[in-house]
Amino acid sequence: MIVRRVGRFFDERLGSDAWLRTLFAKIFPDHWSFYLGEFALYCFVVLVATGVWMTFVYEPAPGAAYPSVLKFTHATPIGYEMRQVHHWAAVTFVAAILVHMGRIFFTAAYRKPREINWVVGILMLTLASLTGFTGYSLPDDALSGTGLRIATSVTESLPFIGGWAADLLNGGSYPGPLLLSHLYTLHVYFLPVTIGALLAIHLGLMVYQKHTQFVPDERRVVGRRAWPDYALRTTAVFCATTAVLLVLAALVEINPIEAYGPYHDWAIPNPAVPDWYAAWLEGALRLGPAVELRIFGHPVPAVFWPGVVLPLAAFALVVSWPWIDKLLTRDDAWHEVLAPATTAPWRVGVGAAMITAGVVLTLAASDDQTAAAIHVPVTALVTLYRLAFPLGSLAAGLIAAAIAAQLRERYDRYGAHRERVVTLRRNAQGGFDEEEPAAS
Amino acid sequence: MRTAALVVATLAILGSAATAIAHLNPALVGGLAAVAFGALAVWAGASAVALHASDELTEPRRHHGPTEGPEPVELMTRSGLFGRWLWIALGGFVVAGLVPLVSLGRTPRRGGTAWRRGARLVTADGKLVRADAVGVGGITTVFPEGNVGAHEASALLIRLEDGLAQLPSDRTGWTPSGNIAYSKICTHAGCPVALYRKESYQLYCPCHQSTFDVLFAARPLSGPATRALPQLPLAVDGEGYLIAQGDFSDPVGPDSWWRTV
Q: Would the CB atoms of A167 and B108 count as touching at under 8 Å?
């Protein structure tokens, strides 16, 4: 009754019934892998909900931040749960984005006309990592404080502008009086609002351009109605995501800052490892060569190469991937239908190589613990990982491409005929002719 | 089953709220909330399966090629507004816009640390350190008196067998009774070099595994650090307490562009 009256109120003023009818009747292609992006989206929703709550109890000031976190963790009935859910949602958010990105990559969903949404997605991945890092740093505990010290050193290593940039972030020499307040503004305002804006573009473009599909029909969307079929499915994904995050938060302690203690520049917990999504950069810093270049007498510190050049190069490679793909395939055609991974073995190879490179760097971030566990010197592991970073990635890429090529060959030989869909049309003589497949 | 799921969800979420108000185990609060959301997911999933109505519906796709008619860029340039002077004016605004940005940060000019000639060494809890306070093979973190915790002032005081350290000749007399002190801030990325392997006389950074040779002026042995840890020149005052002869031998912490060694 109330809903109906509200609906009428808006319809009389905006004609909203027509939009809603169109929206309800909209068709979405259906496949389990299309829900991975929603998994990430709902992590973001949980992050906003729990994060807004924490803004009321957290104090972003030097000396006050750490006690304020401890206080709300233990003095309020749900403070501990809020922090746990928020942190679990953060690490899951980045993971979900990466898995979603993997689906997009291996099915080549980024091809024309969807290059824009690929770029928007990569920007969101980057911002999600930055939001994670700034949030992880807010409690000002011994572990995250050391992470900030490293981040400051990396910023300072920039040629020419390094000191200025580090000073800008810190609001003075490290650890500046404004560092926490800057991180707080970035974490609760700039970064999430930007993610929200990009999310609106991402979803808006997805609706406008319509979702890709596996059904080999370039001209029509084949799938389910938005209401109620798709709405129920996405509700289930939201509730399941929230349930999983709540279970993790209830059962597995994450980021126990009570155990680390407050930050001092002279104390650190051991072992010292960041959250998983930042570990590849930490690993790169561990593997980086002990070389300090001099340019006109100015030092370019060792952290510059693994800390600045490597992530920028990785970002440039990933962001420009749709165009690299175009160069390699000479394919600038319009694609509404996804390419199953095996149709392009080289793409599978590139993906496998990049995943391997990331895994090697991530493993390197805990090389000291691995070395202690298997009783080898850390230096031996460093050498191993340094070799594995280029060579292991290359090998993994070649092996994955070879497997994909074999699968494709087998499919071409045995599978293609069985799964081909043809339309038969009765001809004037009473026989049947195959109708030409719809051209794209 | 769908009704049962909704009943479970309602009971569980109210139970979670009640548990929170009663200040019971946080894991129970979260666990009950998880059950509630899980039950809702079951309801939505089961409802979706029960419908199984609109499996293979279709709608036409949009296909965009180049749009017919004159390009907007052409319409804009045709107006004749984009003359040379407009670009020059815009350039002026961009250049002027850099000023607020640049003024936000300044290149930090770092002086030294809080160590002064004659500053007495104290531990993190403020206790003065006698020349025999640390046993041979021992290690402790020290600060200048009155500046405990001061930025980049932390030093590691290690007691070696007297005469074991092989230091450059200009550092003679810096290690009274085998007491030797180095900056605790790693020259690689600024982490505290918190670990000491006394059997091999190596300092070890837990962040990136740089190791430093305590016997040879803390030169880097392995890991990504390229520069030795700065040494703190030590002496003993009239009352037998350890003092500094001055600030560290080199700038503390990582290098950067404007910070030449």
A: yes
